[in-house]
UniProtKB/TrEMBL annotation:
It comes from the Bacteria. It is found in: Cell membrane. InterPro entries: LeuE-type (IPR001123). Its main location: membrane. The chain crosses the membrane at residues 49-69, 139-164, 176-193. It is a multi-pass membrane protein. The keyword Disulfide bond does not apply. This is LysE family translocator. It holds the Pfam family LysE. Keywords: Cell membrane, Membrane, Transmembrane, Transmembrane helix.
Length: 194
């Protein structure tokens, strides 16, 4: 229990603090509602779980051995987040339409280029793997627990978006909201690059 509580706290902190995933969930919740955002939430959780599992099996060692690989992944992640920010902002002719929802698959695959997700996975692999367990069993355990803890934390961001969505009934407010969320996502992308 002494080892489990810090791990649970870390998972809640990493899932509940602002980041690219949560900014997308606020926007999706605001525009599409909670129920239609669930595939994105599940995709993020599955992507994080798979990423954590693979990292615990040894992928994190590649980043230590080849820091250039980590830098390339960070750059790819930044570029992808900037594309998502552009998509969220919408084209000038279509700013009155809600942005397209991020699918389960897109959300899951996004974790591969999300720097915050990599930090989370590498930290879990290096700090929170259960001692005395086989590597596959420990990796499966921490991945599953991370997904279970992550679901309600990221759901709160989508529900926050749902609450804001009621305010977004006018096209002018929706344009301002999309611009703010897109700028926030772009800023996070640039900050994660450093």
């Amino acid at each position: 229990m002494n080892e489990l509580l810090p791990f649970l706290g870390y998972c809640a902190l990493m899932s509940g603090t602002p980041g690219p995933n949560n900014m997308m969930l606020v926007a999706s919740g605001a525009h599409h509602g909670y129920r239609r955002t669930l595939p994105t939430i599940f995709g993020m959780n599955v992507g994080n779980a798979v990423q954590t599992f693979i990292t615990c099996l040894g992928l994190g060692a590649l980043f230590v051995a080849w820091p250039l690989l980590h830098s390339a992944l960070r750059l790819a992640g930044t570029l992808y987040l900037l594309v998502l920010a552009w998509r969220l902002a919408g084209s000038p002719a279509a700013t009155d339409r809600p942005p397209q929802r991020v699918s389960f698959t897109e959300a899951a695959l996004m974790q591969a280029v999300n720097p915050k997700s990599w930090v989370r996975a590498v930290t879990i692999a290096s700090v929170f793997m259960p001692p005395g367990w086989s590597v596959p069993a420990g990796a499966l355990f921490v991945s599953a627990v991370g997904a279970v803890i992550g679901f309600p934390c990221v759901s709160m961001w989508a529900l926050f978006g749902v609450g804001i969505g009621r305010w977004l009934s006018s096209p002018a407010r929706r344009r301002v909201f999309n611009a703010i969320m897109a700028a926030s996502l772009a800023l996070l992308a640039v900050l994660l690059l450093n």
